[in-house]
Request: fold
Amino acid sequence: MKTFLLVFASCTGLFAQGLDPAALLKNPTDTWPTYNGDYTGRRYSELKQINKDNVKSLTLAWAFQAHARTLKATPLLVNGILYFSIPDNVWAVDALTGRQIWHYSHPVPGDHIASRGVAMYKDRLYFGTPDAHLVCLDARTGKKIWDVTIADVTQGYYLSVAPLVVKDRLIIGTSGDSADVPHFLEAINPEDGSVIWRWNSLPKPGEPGSETWPNEEAMTHGGGPMWMPGTYDPELNLVYWGTGNPHPILAGGGREGDNLYTCSIVAINPDNGKLVWYFQPSPHDTHDWDAVETPVLFDATYHGKRRKVLAQASRNGYFFVLDRATGENLVTTKFVKLDWAKGIDSKGRPIPDPAKEPRQDGSLVAANMDGATNWMAPSYSPQTGLFYVNAFESYSIWYLGLTAYGKAEGHQGGTAHDFWSSAKLVALDVETGKPKWTRPLGDGGTYSGVLTTAGQLLFTADTSGNLLALDPATGDTLWHTYAGGAMNSSPMTYILGGRQYVLTAVDSVLYAWSLPR
Amino acid sequence: MTWTQSVFFTLALALPASAWAQVHYPKSVTYMGKDPLSRDDAKRGRAEFLKSCSFCHGPNADGGAHGPNLIRSALVRHDKDGDLIGAVIRDGRPDKGMPSFSLDPHQVSDLVVFLKASVSASDSAGEGGPARDYPLKLLLTGNAQEGRKYFEGAGGCSKCHSPSGDLAGIAGKYSPIDLQARFLYPEGIQSTATVTLASGETRSGTLVHMDTFAISIRDAGGWRHSWPLDKVKVKVDDPLAEHKKLLEQYTNDDVHNLFAYLETLK
Reply:
């Protein structure tokens, strides 16, 4: 009997298509098991079959037409199958041929801005929906196994975050900023969707952080949504997540104070959901500049000492490096031209200039509502020691919106009119926080993320939709092509059957690039 | 809240409910974009709300001295065709001090439409930039004399523009909010480009597209021409270059003074 069981187990192992959790701890090569490829958020692959010397001959291996709205997710790649989502839809696609395996479609109400992707745990997939549900699918068939409500869609909640698998749980945060509601991060049991713990972006009365709000009414409606997946350090056992802006978004008058834990980077113990430390990139934000951009994890030397650090190029235009064990600030620098802050305080936080807050007669500010960067992924390459971010330089005039009775007008409390903007790729020295080089990407904006590889390559796109392979040491162009639309997503790469592929999503078409056979 | 608004609000709260109908209300959510409250039934609902509900819930349903913010109310957001709101109006909430109201079904229906439209207005407020009818009085905080000095001096505006020439009557041509946006950065004005080919021949036209790799122009005859950038030399004339530079230099006082000056050019 024992022999039979062993044989049976090895057979099922041989044909299993589920995700081996060990893959989450490795650099992504033959597997891309989570939104950022691995827990570090670096979006750096050790693959180098496609490299600086041969990238000129890169060619199209296949294209997959989703016939849907813009693809903003990063596909997972597990055992030769790609899994990705667009709001209301999930696909499984053969990573070798680009042929569809199954398509899950279930239209629901709610905000359809984006779905960043799916998560995989064993043989199941998980994704958030526009109506703030978390859905579990059988990865073999795309058939629904369960569906749980995470938050109330009528209050403007939805889920854009790709869940993050940590140990035996899924971590997911709520999105949405059309209503003044409190947001939260939850650990969910992948077996049945039950809640293991919840961490609230807004403190309760009397809790630490509550002193940064003027009253309970403002604090309980203060926002702080989670729009993007976080990262995880298994050794320190800390999950890192960025939180979004406070509410009302542009009208800060009724919420005097720093407004914790909005626009913050938080370190959470995944076992119990307790806050271990926090750092707030934008105290008392009044410009919609979420601090949700990927907290990227790597090690580097500061003042002669090797440190485990976390770096974020934040939407407010500042680059922060923190000790990820303690939250101690090591570097704060600007990565674009800015004029909204008066300086840096003793904790390394920018000090907002009240003169640059939205005004009823208009306030001209260097940076628009999209901020200096946005949800597109940055990348850190251990090969160059540089941190890469696609950034915007822009100008907007910001208006404060108050009712005739002095209250914030709607959830936003104002608006902005955008003027000229331009985009550039900035390569930051992580030890000084200063740009090593910048490469203009054109007028306007691009939501293209960045991927770096050991092949001495950096993949991204410009504002004209040109897909680019650049030299990560200099920013020089090594390969480019125009795929007929905009890349509003972040590229990924994998090796399958001995062949390396680079995937770029352009509008709703997924292109797989490879070397000629 | 201004002093005038504050006094008005205090007075209004002190008025008996029956007096509300005579009070003149300013328009509410209009400056920041579309107005879902413009439907007839929403307007009737607003009138009923002002008469029966606003003394507790505030004139915009966003909360008052005695009643909660109904825009944030889960009950209002979950209501379907009055199934929840109707019962609260009919029965009141005696435990929370809310009396019942004897309204006919049409009045209840209008109130429901008004509340739902108020939620919608609040949730979409600010989308798409400021409304075209954004009030001049909110924008007009600068000093026109100082604005004129800036126009003729530090701003360098008079090098290209003239109040009696291209800017004559400019304040009458654009709404105040559009005028403020347009003087800061007049969008839609295209650059021109001169392309020198390998042969030495030159072509000029409106710049249609340029990226790292290619340039496209439209010639005087309306035809489009494109070249790879590594095969030609290009000179671009951007008429907005000075406006871009000024965006980096303006203080908010410069912006408001210049706007006040341009508003005098009627």
